[in-house]
Amino acid sequence: MRCPTTRACFVSIRSFSSSNLLPVLAGHEPNDLLNEVRLLSSRGQLHQALSLFYNSSPELHSLQTYATLFNECARHGYLQQGLRLHHFMLAHFPSCTSDLFVTNHLINMYSKCGYLQYAHQLFDAMPKRNVVSWTALVSGYAQCGRGVESFRLFSDMLAERDCRPNDFAFTSVLSSCDYLCGKQLHALVLKMGLGASVYVTNSLITMYSKSYKVEEAWTLFKSLSCWSLVSWNSMIAGFQLAKLGMHAVGVFVKMHHEGIGFNRATLLSVFSSLCGSHGIDINLGLKFCFQVYCLSVKTGFISEVEVATAFLKAYSELGGDVSEFYHLFLETSCQDIIFWTSMITALAEPDPAKAFFLYRRLLREGLTPDLYTFSIVLKACAGFVTEQHALAIHSQVIKAGFKDETVLRNALIHAYARCGSIALSKKVFEEMGCHDLVSWNSMLKAYGLHGKAKEALQLFPQMDIKPDTATFVALLSACSHCGMVEEGLRIFDSMFKDHGIIPQLDHYACMVDILGRAGRIVEAEELIRRMPMEPDSVVWSALLGSCRKHGETQLAKTAVSKLKQMEPENSLGYVQMSNIYSSGGRFNEAGTIRKEMDGSGVRKEPGLSWIEVGNQVHEFASGGRHHPQREAICTKLQGLIGQLKEIGYVPEISLALHDIEEEHKQEQLFHHSEKMALVFAVMNEGKLHGGGNVIRIMKNIRICVDCHNFMKLASGFLQKEIIVRDSNRFHHFKDSICSCNDYW
């Protein structure tokens, strides 16, 4: 109902409190309406401002009032309200359409809301434009990531008479342009005398950084006569984008020493720069991360969820103590779903059990998991031995109404596959109404992980979406696990020829593995020589593994030398070389390698296995050390070994790594962690998930030949399926046969 304008007095908007009643105006002049609209807008009450406007007399509607409301719609991204207001204006105030001031606000609103086609139509229909008109549209295209159109519009603007671009026009077009266009704009900035503008210079720094021309950004930063906080933040963010974390740290230290204050954006960039950057010393990174954390505590910024989340992510990626995460979590006053999820994210891979515990506590606190929380919890579930946790989360996903969310279905495919249930992964995939690229890649990877290369190759032609680099890594890995050399070569050759994808390091590593495993080591070495980029540690590790399998000592030395240069603290090169010498009976050389490894302070990762009995995960090291039932397990194991020997088990004593008596070599092999885990599962058959017909074991390193032979015979003798997940793949042992067909 429209408010009567003839009333002598009106109730002031300041005394209006009921949300069920329409606000009424305190005066009947246009400026009164404008002032009340501005007041409501400043309070964030745009809906009430619009309601007041629509229920007032059209005689009170001024150009400034329309402009104010269009500006607020733009600021909040309220496209529908803006459209309605525009239609209302056309019906009640058609002369506004030719007004430059109002039309500029309309262009700005539609641009900010991403409705660029209509914004451009309004722009083209304008009889006269000014710098605001051009800048609004240039900014709109830039904010929507359409840098080419933004740059083209900016260029057209330069041809207009009396339309000199201002600082904001430059900062807008620079935010989305590429390096070549940015260089041209930089030259124009200098020509027009805008080089001293802090805003423009900060935008240039960001442009160069995004273009990975961080040296030019740094030169520009140093040329500034004075630096604002935005300048410092831009440079820190620039180094972070270029993955030069220590440079970002250096800028922050310099900034702090000069007494420059920092803000939330500074901390977010600094913490982010410590994640995934090149050349960061882990210990130094951890120390600095904790120091910045202390500064954020001192200034109170750590209480902001985004800052605490960024710290957690950085600290976890640097290998910080997870118990300290929990301590921080309890100290933070605002524990919303985002922060809970960040805590779970930090623990999902290094400690899935603690991540799952936090998830259960989140539910007890009465918080509602969102889509991202579920996806992270499912990532944690992928680290468990069995699929029971993933099944429980799957049921909660359905109950929460997210069952058709592609992101979660993709996470389920991954979780079920990593827990050993390729059947459940396939079921989720086939029930999906629509597959995105991640869906296809996840299923292809799942097949490869379980040694089902044929199924992967049959699925690939069914893809109704363009494959990417990850697709071919999944396909080549599947071929590698199954020894499908010719198929692997064909897929590798087709990448660029049929799909326009240039092979990257991961693809070459797969091909080296495919050729090397098949004994075609000369071809693998030649492929490394022909690589268009420097081979990384993964490529050399693949070659070294092939040398280990086929006894190629000389080439193995080359691979080990490269690995030592690239990753001096990695034990792989030392261990593999020692194994090659030991397998050939050259125990003196093997001992020399071990001494060199000890002298360098390098430690071998111990072989561990895990098995889930009841609701408890049991960990086994070689020999069953530290397990409370070690003696009973060893006694049972000795009995099983004797029974398996009667049906053909012969210990692979050549795998023992020391020049010792044969009896002691056998004892070494008998106490490998996966054998201990198997026996413990048999001893607790009734407590196993699924009734005990399937025994699932997870292992942190590659299963050895002796344990592989042992598991094959044990599966037939015990009449059980034994699923072993090692560091490379799954082995499904059943009826004395392994799914890998002894090729791994």
CATH classification class of the domain at 458-600: Mainly Alpha
Separation of termini? 78 Å
What is the topology, as strand order, of the major beta sheet?
Answer: 2-1-3-4-5-6
CATH fold label of the domain at 458-600: Serine Threonine Protein Phosphatase 5, Tetratricopeptide repeat
| Unreliable segments of 5+ consecutive residues | 1-27, 657-665
Protein name: DYW domain-containing protein
Keywords: Repeat
Domain DYW: 648-744
GO molecular function, one term: zinc ion binding
Can you summarize this structure?
By secondary structure, the protein is mainly alpha-helical.
List keywords for this structure.
744 residues; mainly alpha; Serine Threonine Protein Phosphatase 5, Tetratricopeptide repeat; 6-stranded mixed sheet; 38 helices; 6 strands; disordered N terminus
What does this entry look like structurally?
The longest helix is centred in the middle third of the chain and has 18 residues, at 282-299. With 744 residues, the protein is mostly helical. Helix 3 packs parallel to helix 5 (100-112) and helix 26 runs antiparallel to helix 27. The protein has 38 helices and 6 strands. Among the domains are: 458-600, Serine Threonine Protein Phosphatase 5, Tetratricopeptide repeat, CATH 1.25.40; 608-738, no CATH class. Mean pLDDT is 86; it is low at 1-27 and 657-665. The radius of gyration is 33 Å and the shape is elongated. The termini are far apart. The protein has a 6-stranded mixed sheet with strand order 2-1-3-4-5-6, with helices on one face. 63% of the residues lie in helices and 4% in strands.
